[in-house]
């Protein structure tokens, strides 16, 4: 599985960005996908996740009500709509795909999101 993120950039506080993650390869094996972020000096942390079957979602408390995760299974693409961005959202955002039976995570290369105050 290969994951390629796009859509990061620089935005002012209160603005919006939409991240995309395109998956290729053995995508049929993916059970769930998600977005993680890592700010300088901090550990990588879950932002949001979505199940491939059923589409159930999960969000970090810090982004609930502001971020929306979605996916287009036909195009093997996942999205993260980020609204009302805050400076504390500044981080490198990584796309994740989990294959449950392998207990293995695939990662994208990351995309930088910078929110200026």
Give structural notes.
With 117 residues, the protein is mainly beta. Helices cover 0% and strands 56% of the residues. The protein is built from no helices and eleven strands. It has strands spanning 2-6, 9-12, 17-24, 32-38, 45-51, 57-59, 67-72, 77-82, 91-99, 104-107, 111-116. Strands 2, 4, 5, 6, 9, 10 and 11 form a seven-stranded mixed β-sheet that branches. Strands 1-3-8-7 form a four-stranded antiparallel β-sheet, with no helix packed on it. The mean pLDDT is 96.
Summarize the structure.
The chain has 117 residues and is mostly beta strands. The protein has strands spanning 2-6, 9-12, 17-24, 32-38, 45-51, 57-59, 67-72, 77-82, 91-99, 104-107, 111-116.
Features:
117 residues; mainly beta
Strand and helix layout:
Elements: E1 2-6, E2 9-12, E3 17-24, E4 32-38, E5 45-51, E6 57-59, E7 67-72, E8 77-82, E9 91-99, E10 104-107, E11 111-116
Parallel strand pairs: 2-11
Antiparallel strand pairs: 1-3, 3-8, 4-5, 4-9, 5-6, 7-8, 9-10, 9-11
Shape: globular
Which whole number gives the mean pLDDT? 96
- Summarize the helix and strand pattern as letters: EEEEEEEEEEE
Largest sheet, described in full? 7 strands, mixed
**Measured distance between first and last alpha carbons:** 37 Å
Query: How much helix, percentage-wise, in residues?
Result: under 10%
What is the tally of beta strands? 11
Contiguous helical run count: 0
Percentage of residues in strands: over 45%
Q: Structural class from helices and strands?
A: mainly beta
User: Cα-atom Rg, whole angstroms?
Assistant: 14 Å
Which regions have little confidence, pLDDT < 50, spanning 5+ residues? none
